[in-house]
């Protein structure tokens, strides 16, 4: 049975964000090690990409994120979801971000997810998305060139050291349907929205299927 609960942990406010991006010419890439303390980053090879959602281990929360950009108008929105080791809903978010490319939307979705982790004091997080380039940027295997992408990479890099133990993986679209659902909801919200007590009704079925490994 799908279980929903309120997020745990004390609130941690962002302060003194640092730039952990190395900019070479017109490229930027986040690199770890710029923050205080030790951060463990566990990456997975691209060949291990799954088509189904996988539960995190006990003691770790999992963030799935997604960006949505309409081709004709380029109107974009973002969304994401945190779940626990039983597949239980912890938190979801969605918002409109104006006009943007698909890469900007994906990066903005990840940035917002990390901001929520830091704000809630979550220090052990599994990050997963279906945009391989964005996942590889976090893994330090890819670089971005567009100015807005670079800015978002720098903001993401400033947040990464605030998560002590992080796992990063790529998932195919089929395994990221709940995050995609939140991103689609973002097109219709008037202001940034965060769900804490329970998920939107239209996403309950897919959350249940993911929790059951279907």
UniProtKB/TrEMBL annotation:
Signal peptide: 1-20
Keywords: Signal
Domain RNase H type-1 residue range list: 64-185
Any Pfam family hit: RVT_3
Residue ranges crossing the lipid bilayer per the database entry: none
Keyword Transport: no
Molecular function, one GO term: RNA-DNA hybrid ribonuclease activity
Span list, region Disordered: 31-54
Name by which UniProt lists this protein: RNase H type-1 domain-containing protein
Gene label: gb28249
């Amino acid at each position: 049975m799908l279980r929903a609960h309120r997020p745990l942990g004390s609130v941690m406010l962002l302060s003194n964000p640092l730039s952990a991006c190395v900019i070479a010419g017109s490229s930027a890439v986040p690199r770890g090690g710029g923050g205080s303390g030790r951060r463990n980053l566990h990456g997975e090879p691209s060949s291990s990409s799954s088509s189904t959602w996988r539960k995190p281990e006990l003691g770790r929360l999992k963030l799935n994120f997604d960006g949505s950009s309409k081709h004709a108008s380029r109107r974009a929105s973002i969304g994401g979801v945190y779940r626990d080791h039983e597949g239980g809903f912890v938190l979801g978010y969605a918002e409109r971000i104006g006009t943007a490319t698909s890469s900007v939307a994906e990066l903005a979705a990840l940035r917002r997810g990390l901001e929520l982790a830091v704000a809630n004091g979550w220090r052990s997080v599994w990050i997963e998305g279906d945009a391989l380039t964005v996942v590889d940027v976090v893994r330090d295997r890819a670089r971005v060139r567009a100015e807005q992408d670079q800015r978002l990479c720098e903001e993401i890099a400033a947040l990464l050291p605030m998560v002590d133990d992080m796992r990063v993986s790529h998932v195919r679209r089929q395994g990221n349907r709940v995050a995609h659902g939140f991103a689609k909801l973002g097109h219709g919200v008037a202001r940034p929205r965060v769900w804490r007590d329970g998920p939107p009704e239209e996403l309950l079925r897919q959350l249940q299927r993911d929790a059951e490994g279907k």
